[in-house]
Amino acid sequence: MIRRTLWAALTAMILTWAVPGAAQTTGSSVQFPGGYAPGSAPCVRQLDGSCVPVGPAAPLPVAAKQENLTLAVANSAAPAQTVYGGTYIFGQTCGSYNGGTLALRYRGPDGVTMLTLLTRGSSDTAGGATSVTLGSQAIVDVVLPTGSTECVATLARVP
């Protein structure tokens, strides 16, 4: 047993001396084995379309997608918007609902019809927003109650 351990240690020392750079890494350079393999390396796409090699200055983007949408502001509904998908918090309030309801809708499977996901006839209280789950690339909008005032509706993705 001692002989095997000594032999393994001796072999490791010889290999370390024979190949001095084997245990060292070289920053963000890419080395090709014998010049036979085509070069490729992971990179992070920048806003200008360029690609920067992955490294401390440009790490892989692993943070969850952040998304905050304003579906209605100042009693005016925004056009339908496409969401990333996942779990969202829907919050809404109106000065007056005038007896109607505010509706959160999503585009149905036919690609044309907007289907009602939920309705609200009163303002959310503090901490009373609603959790909803939406599919990837879902299209959503809100319909405000007729005669309503001061309506605001938001949709925020939970990371």
Topology:
Elements: H1 2-18, E1 43-45, E2 51-53, E3 68-73, E4 76-77, E5 81-82, E6 86-93, E7 102-107, E8 114-120, E9 130-134, E10 139-143, E11 152-157
Antiparallel strand pairs: 1-2, 3-4, 3-11, 5-10, 6-9, 6-11, 7-8, 7-10
Features:
159 residues, mainly beta, Jelly Rolls, five-stranded antiparallel sheet, four-stranded antiparallel sheet, 1 helix, elongated, Secreted protein, signal
Structural class: mainly beta
User: Please, what is the oligomeric state?
Assistant: single chain
Uncertain segments: 17-26
Mean pLDDT: 82
Percent strand: 25-35%
Query: How would a crystallographer describe the biggest sheet?
Result: 5 strands, antiparallel
Q: Summarize the helix and strand pattern as letters.
A: HEEEEEEEEEEE
Distance between the termini: 54 Å
Strand order of the largest sheet: 4-3-11-6-9
Signal peptide: 1-23
Organism: Sphingomonas sanguinis
Keywords: Signal
Protein name: Secreted protein
Task: Give an overview in words.
With 159 residues, this protein is mainly beta. The chain contains 1 helix and 11 strands; from the N terminus they run H-E-E-E-E-E-E-E-E-E-E-E. Strand 3 (68-73) and strand 4 form a beta hairpin. The radius of gyration is 28 Å and the shape is elongated. Mean pLDDT is 82; it is low at 17-26.
